[in-house]
């Protein structure tokens, strides 16, 4: 069965650079979520999209933005990267609200 | 505020049974989810309880008591591969998941 696909798996950026993370949700899933997870932390909700429209916003910094495209893939754009942005970034998708399927994540390291 | 409380770490022996408790306080409540996450891996959905009672899925069961704002995940016949972090997450009135801090399950042979 198709899963949530994220790319890249690993990314190393320098401070003040920009990064773009991509997510391809499970087909026919209507909602996409982005999460940030630091070491030993629970996933922190960043932003979500329902049918390509932003549906909710969590603790997403102003330096970050996201969108969902006509083909349902989503991108998280991160600018002016800081050391503290180093984390695992997960995309998840769901059909309905209960069960969210997570992608394998992108490990971002800012140096 | 909204919060979920779960133990930070639980240790059990292979083949045994372990229960991970979770209490929640949220603005509105639709249900309680459980996710498993291995180190460096993605959270994997285990269960969702919207109604009071026990839901069983193989070796894993999840329980919810809405009147007590309490739930638990029960893992039976523990295997070494069950060593992971387990998160409870409550769905609030905005359909947002409020996550607990996670319980690290350590299984000893």
Name the descriptors.
heterodimer, A: 111 residues, mainly beta, four-stranded antiparallel beta sheet, globular, B: 109 residues, six-stranded mixed beta sheet, 0% helix
Quantity of strands of chain A, as a count: 11
Oligomer: heterodimer
Write down the overall geometry of chain B. globular
The radius of gyration over CA of chain A amounts to 13 Å
Low-confidence stretches of chain B: none
The greatest interface here is:
A-B, 17 and 20 residues
Number of helices of chain A: 0
Could you explain how this protein is built, in words?
The complex is a heterodimer of chains A (111) and B (109). Chain A has 111 residues and is an all-beta fold. Chain A contains no helices and 11 strands. In chain A, strand 4 (31-37) and strand 5 (44-50) form a beta hairpin. Chain A is globular and about 35 Å long. Chain B is mainly beta. Chain B has strands spanning 3-5, 9-13, 18-25, 31-37, 44-49, 53-57, 60-65, 70-75, 84-91, 97-99, 103-108. The N and C termini of chain B lie far apart (40 Å).
């Amino acid at each position: 069965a198709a899963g949530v696909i994220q790319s890249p798996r690993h990314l190393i950026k320098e401070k003040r650079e920009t990064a773009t993370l991509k997510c391809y949700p499970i087909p026919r899933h209507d909602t996409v979520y982005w999460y940030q997870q630091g070491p030993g932390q629970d996933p922190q909700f960043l932003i979500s999209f329902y049918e390509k429209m932003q549906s909710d916003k969590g603790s997403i910094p102003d330096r970050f933005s996201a969108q969902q495209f006509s083909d349902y893939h989503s991108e998280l754009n991160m600018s002016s990267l800081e050391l503290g942005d180093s984390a695992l970034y997960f995309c998840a998708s769901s059909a309905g609200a209960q069960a969210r399927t997570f992608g394998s994540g992108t490990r971002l390291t800012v140096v | 505020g909204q919060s979920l409380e779960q133990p930070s770490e639980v240790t059990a022996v292979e083949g045994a049974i372990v229960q991970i408790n979770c209490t929640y306080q949220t603005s509105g409540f639709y249900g309680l989810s459980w996710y498993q996450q291995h180190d460096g891996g993605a959270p994997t959905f285990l269960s969702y309880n919207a109604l009071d009672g026990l839901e069983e899925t193989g070796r894993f069961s999840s329980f919810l008591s809405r009147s007590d704002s309490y739930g638990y995940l029960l893992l039976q016949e523990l295997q070494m591969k069950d060593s992971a972090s387990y998160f409870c997450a409550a769905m609030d009135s905005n359909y947002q998941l409020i996550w607990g801090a996670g319980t690290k399950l350590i299984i000893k042979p």
